[in-house]
Design a protein that fits this description.
The complex is a heterodimer. Chain A is α/β, with parallel strands linked by helices. Chain A contains 11 helices and 13 strands. In chain A, β11 and β12 form a beta hairpin. Chain B has one domain. The chains are: A alpha/beta, B mainly alpha. The interface between A and B is medium-sized, with 39 and 30 residues.
Chain lengths: 325, 273
């Protein structure tokens, strides 16, 4: 069943341009030139119930604008949107009870109070029955491994712990649809991995539909089998993420950490991105990864090794260039 | 398209009570500031006493009030103004609009206006209680300088004080909502601050400025001047008339606030999200 449907969606923002200098500033007090910027251009897509969809694109591509339109934060300039059978811009309370949105940069937790107080507020806001509230708090705090931090003031928590509580607060009322905008931004690799695993488990067990934006390929690769690539407000790819990576990801990045100061062997066909006596980051074509790894594995003091796909921005640029050609 | 099932006030009340509770809990983390500002308010009473002693210059009555009544006026105005003149929420709310944090009201089933009023109500009462304790102690210690208001007069003024608090919160909400349209609300804020300070009677009893016809038409008179005059038993209009006029003004400002909630928030573009 389709639960998100957007057709011919256009969103334009008005802005004023002001040239440099005092004279222009004075002039702009009386006359300002209004300009329009199209953040989404004739955008159309649909999402089925239970799907996990990733939104990819560089900064300013229109991903967050799309989430703002789907959640009713802003109104479209034209076009139609239906989410869970509602028109988001109407702001119906019944609609707001069925979804949740987590924006990596905006917190809903009360800074000076324990997270448990913010959870209790959400219980009242979403009119969650006492039993369901207790069960969900117990389930999610165990899943996210934060039971012992429930009564600690939010300002004393680490960024990763705070994000876990943000996610718990948004999942408490059992939303059918979850919007996550850069949920792992600023977190270290360990916390990112934990949050991905927990979201996967929570989504699978609770049957949530997920729409995720992230700059980390790993987030999208692990959580969202389907991805929509946006650039300049237009959809340029909509399909399986694995197909996208097979077609457009041409390089791998290998990051190696050494326990002691180590001299790197000659690595043919690899580009060194960053190097210190104790670590190295190299980029190499996929077909050359095996060759590079065998050379690297000859080194005795390897502490950690990571292999990652091309980052989102590079992928999007390649998709865009292919479409343009 | 589906349409909304209306939530009843009884169902909605717990969420706003919860907001009140959290605001109280939050304010208690900063109780040191609250008590300090209450203690320092004694100095403004002392200053008013010294100033008015000089103005009275041995006269028994000035502008229809004795020196004791005048000093008591400033003491009561100090307590009531801590209820009606807390502007920090106004700035916080307008900052939420500018920075995009206002999103929290749009994506959750809450009314921004009701959240603002609950938070304002909760935030006003802690400073008011501490002011009341400090100033009541001052009154008890230095009772020869004050008039002790009668309980009947104070009780009749209480609904006016509560409605005046609501009126001030509604005005603050309207001013902060201007941030949807204006980049900077300092101008409207300074205008509001000046008008209210002058027309509420916080600086000088309105009877002295406007003579016997203190501005009964102005909504601002009901935030400080009339509640204080009712406490002192010196009001020139009846208690019932005060309630009715204040209720009328509250309704007018509530309608403006609701209109702003409905239409102004459409200008929100979520910049900063």
């Amino acid at each position: 069943m389709i639960i998100i449907k957007a057709e011919n969606l256009i969103k334009e923002y008005k802005y004023f341009e002001k040239p440099e200098g005092l004279k222009a500033s004075v002039k702009s007090l009386f006359k300002r030139e209004t300009k329009l910027r199209r953040a989404l251009d004739d955008f159309a897509f649909s999402v089925d119930e239970g799907e996990f969809v990733g939104l990819m694109g560089p900064n300013g591509a229109g991903k967050t604008t799309l989430i703002k339109l789907l959640t009713g934060i802003i109104r479209p300039s034209s076009g139609e949107i239906s989410v869970l059978g509602y028109e988001p811009a109407r702001g119906d309370a019944a609609f707001k009870k069925k979804f949740a949105v987590v924006m990596g940069q905006k917190s809903q937790l009360w800074w000076d109070l324990p997270a448990s107080d913010s959870l209790l507020l959400n219980k009242a806001i979403y009119e969650i029955p006492e039993r369901q509230y207790r069960d969900n708090v117990a389930y999610f705090t165990k899943l996210f491994e934060v039971e012992r931090y429930l009564n600690v003031p939010v300002r004393k928590l680490s960024l990763g712990e705070r994000m876990k509580f943000e996610l718990i607060a948004s999942l408490l009322h059992a939303p059918k649809l979850l919007f996550l905008d850069e949920p792992t931004i600023g977190l270290d690799a360990m916390a990112q991995r934990q949050i991905r695993a927990m979201l996967k488990a929570a989504g699978r067990e609770r049957g949530v539909t997920l729409l995720l934006t992230s700059h980390y390929t790993e987030d999208l690769l692990e959580l969202t089998p389907r991805c929509v690539v946006i650039r300049g407000g237009k959809k340029i790819y909509d399909g399986e993420i694995n197909t996208l990576l097979q077609q457009y990801s041409v390089n791998h990045t290998i990051t190696v950490k050494f326990a002691t100061e180590t001299k790197l062997p000659e690595l043919y066909g690899a580009e060194i991105i960053e190097q210190t006596p104790f670590s190295v980051e190299i980029r190499t074509p996929k077909e050359n990864v095996r060759n590079c790894l065998s050379k690297l594995m000859e080194l005795v003091d390897i502490e950690d090794i990571q292999i990652a796909d091309d980052d989102v921005t590079l992928l999007v640029e390649r998709v865009f260039k292919t479409h343009e050609n | 398209m589906k349409t909304e099932l209306k939530s009843t006030p009884a169902k909605a009340l717990p969420k706003y009570m919860q907001i009140c509770g959290l605001e109280w809990k939050n304010a208690l983390s900063y109780r040191g500031d609250t008590w300090l500002s209450a203690i320092f308010s004694i100095f403004s009473i002392l200053l008013a006493y010294l100033l008015w002693s000089a103005i009275f210059a041995g006269r028994a009555v000035f502008g229809g009030m004795t020196l004791k009544q005048m000093t008591t006026y400033y003491l009561l105005a100090g307590i009531i103004s801590s209820l009606t003149q807390s502007d920090d929420l106004l700035w916080e709310f307008s900052d939420d609009i500018k920075s995009g944090k206002f999103v929290k009201y749009l994506v959750r089933p809450v009314s921004p206006l009701a959240c603002f009023l609950s938070a304002g109500f909760a935030r006003s009462f802690l400073p008011a209680i501490s002011s009341f304790v400090v100033l009541a102690c001052s009154m008890a210690i230095f009772k020869i300088y004050f008039v002790i208001p009668s309980l009947i007069h104070v009780l009749s003024a209480l609904p006016v004080i509560l409605l005046g608090t609501l009126l001030s919160s509604l005005i603050n909400y309207i001013v902060s909502s201007l941030a949807f349209k204006l980049t900077d609300i300092s101008g409207p804020y300074i205008l509001k601050y000046t008008i209210i300070n002058f027309l509420s009677g916080a600086l000088i009893p309105l009877g002295l400025v406007f003579g016997s016809g203190a501005p009964a038409w102005s909504p601002f008179s009901y935030t400080i001047y009339y509640p204080v005059m009712l406490c002192l038993g010196l009001s020139d209009i009846s208690v019932l008339k005060t309630y009715l006029i204040l209720l009328l003004w509250c309704t007018v400002f509530l309608l403006i606030a609701l209109l702003m909630q409905k239409h102004a928030s459409r200008a929100f573009e979520g910049v900063g999200v």
